[in-house]
Amino acid sequence: MIPLDYILGQVPAQATKITWGILFLGGCVAVPLVLAAVVGLIVYLVRRRKPSGAEPKPLTAQPPAAPAPAARCAQCNTPLSADAPLGLCPKCVLAVGVDSQQATRTSAAPPGPPPAPAFVPPRPEELAPRFPQLEILELLGQGGMGAVYKARQPGLDRTVALKILPPGLGADPTFAERFTREARSLARLSHPNIVAVYDFGQAGDLYYFVMEYVDGVSLRQMERKERLEPRQALDVVMQVCEALQFAHDVGIVHRDIKPENILIDTKGRVKIADFGLAKLLSRAPADFTLTQPQQVMGTPAYMAPEQIEHPADVDQRADIYSLGVVFYEMLTGELPLGRFQPPSQKVQVDVRLDEVVLKTLAKEPERRYQQASQVRTDVEHISRAPQAPAATPRPGAGQATKRSWSGWAVAAAVIAGVFLMWVVLLVVIALAGLFFALVSHPSAPPDEPAASVMGAQTPRQAVAPLPMVELKLVELKHYPLDSLEGVIIPEGVELDKTVSSDGHGSLKIIADGPRTVRLFETGPIDGENARLMYQARLRTEGLEGQAYLEMWICLPDLGAFFSRGLNNTLTGTADWTIVETPFSLKPDQHPYNAKLNLVITGKGTVWIDDIHLLKAPRE
């Protein structure tokens, strides 16, 4: 075969000049065409974004009105400051939802003696002697299940929420045991998206919780202010899924997911409140004999069917159903009652959300998502992928917008077509000129000296490769995976001595659907101002989805942040492959923990081996 550089060397100078001349003239013609096409497309896109017959929403109220009166909280009528979030004060947040819970219990209770008088919470100054370790600042709110106060812990210099329960509950001799059991279950829930419980106990005849104080509003208050955009709803759902999956992993079901119990602070972080109705799934049924057999705990409009029919037998899928109700309400502004339509048939939303919402609202628990992490995976995929065309809403749900091709669009399409034809023509002319130049000037074959055609040539000098910068990697942790020792959640994970990348065994996971495998937690690591790298070897067989690494970095006062190796995944059947996911730390960031997980998004078998946590200087 004749080398390319030899062929180019045989082209006569005159032919080369002609070819370049043709290309230059073509460029002079093509540049105006390109500019015209770009301008036409921009104008078309701008016109297409503006629906016909619709006026843009004004940024300010029209016409100008007199100065508005001072804003007040919609719940307690307290005057608001200018920077109050969403026109609501934070003092009512933690007490939201207790009234609806009391109403539910009252309607579900069997016939009996009349209820006790309404609970009257003590004033802060009356409550102070019972809690000398706290400074009781103000009453935030009250309901049938107690009252919530804003307080301060001087020793730790932090603001907290103090929740006290009605004193009459202590008359039940079994209540103390139930209270201690449920309080301990709450204390196990340490997650950025769950309201933390700092302390609990009994002060005189009052049972109490000391909890994290959330400066923000509930999802219900946010919905009353204005309907959420679909992207905002997706963000809320993903954060709720993170919290629910964490609670479900330790065997706790919330049983009362609703907008009142979903709080959003001033930084947009979601916090789930009131796990007081949680049921420990990891305990034997005998541990729950203190709970009334037919007690229905939750809010009816948000409860799964099995939670009403068999309240003692619900599991994490009841929370997934309640989340589906909240999701549907955020998208449509309505509850999914009776024979309801999919969200895209009521409002303009991505039609792919219909499948997610309807699957969470399936009547039979086995037809729903089985894990909250599965909901998060599907919602995250929809939020990242381009939006699918939305279905036409039902009549009356909104005015349909009709768009047609404008004259600018037709002109842009014509100009683009002409430009492409011109480019093809120029390439054909250039290749034809090169071909005829070679045919009309035969040359010696490449085996003969080239000097007979071109004269002596100076041999080309080899260019030395640039020196490679060695990346100094430091190993922080190494898990050879020749045993199950140290695995956080070993359920569904087995040690496979026959399949390994190093001959010492590996971990095998047979997935029947999407799941997140929690492998290791490192504890404090020295990674300040460094680039962390979570690295492992993966092998797959018959995997319908993808397998990739996930790393959570926990930073003091900032919370937990994750990195996923979505650009470094395995699918189908693949032999041992090194995969990794990075995380860059800034100066003065000292992680107190790193969580190393494996994410599987479909059915199949995955092996993982030879896990490393490395660090290198930031680039």
Describe the protein's architecture and organization.
The chain has 3 domains: 4-40 and 411-445; 85-384, Transferase(Phosphotransferase), domain 1; 474-617, Sandwich (Jelly Rolls), CATH 2.60.120.260. The strands form 4 sheets. Strands 11, 12, 13, 14, 15, 16, 17, 18 and 19 form a 9-stranded antiparallel beta sheet that branches. It has a 5-stranded antiparallel beta sheet with strand order 1-2-3-5-4. The protein has helices spanning 4-9, 13-49, 98-108, 124-127, 175-187, 219-225, 230-249, 305-309, 316-332, 352-360, 372-384, 407-440, 451-454, and strands spanning 135-143, 146-153, 158-164, 197-203, 206-212, 216-218, 252-253, 262-265, 270-272, 279-280, 474-479, 493-496, 506-511, 515-521, 530-555, 559-564, 570-584, 593-600, 604-617. The protein contains 13 helices and 19 strands. With 619 residues, it is an alpha+beta fold. Strand 15 (530-555) and strand 16 form a beta hairpin. Helix 7 runs antiparallel to helix 9 and helix 7 (230-249) packs antiparallel against helix 11 (372-384). It starts with a helix and ends with a strand.
Lay out the secondary structure.
Blueprint: H1 4-9, H2 13-49, H3 98-108, H4 124-127, E1 135-143, E2 146-153, E3 158-164, H5 175-187, E4 197-203, E5 206-212, E6 216-218, H6 219-225, H7 230-249, E7 252-253, E8 262-265, E9 270-272, E10 279-280, H8 305-309, H9 316-332, H10 352-360, H11 372-384, H12 407-440, H13 451-454, E11 474-479, E12 493-496, E13 506-511, E14 515-521, E15 530-555, E16 559-564, E17 570-584, E18 593-600, E19 604-617
Antiparallel strand pairs: 1-2, 2-3, 3-5, 4-5, 6-8, 7-10, 8-9, 11-19, 12-13, 13-19, 14-18, 15-16, 15-17, 15-18, 15-19
Helix pairs in contact: 2-12, 7-9, 7-11, 9-10, 10-11
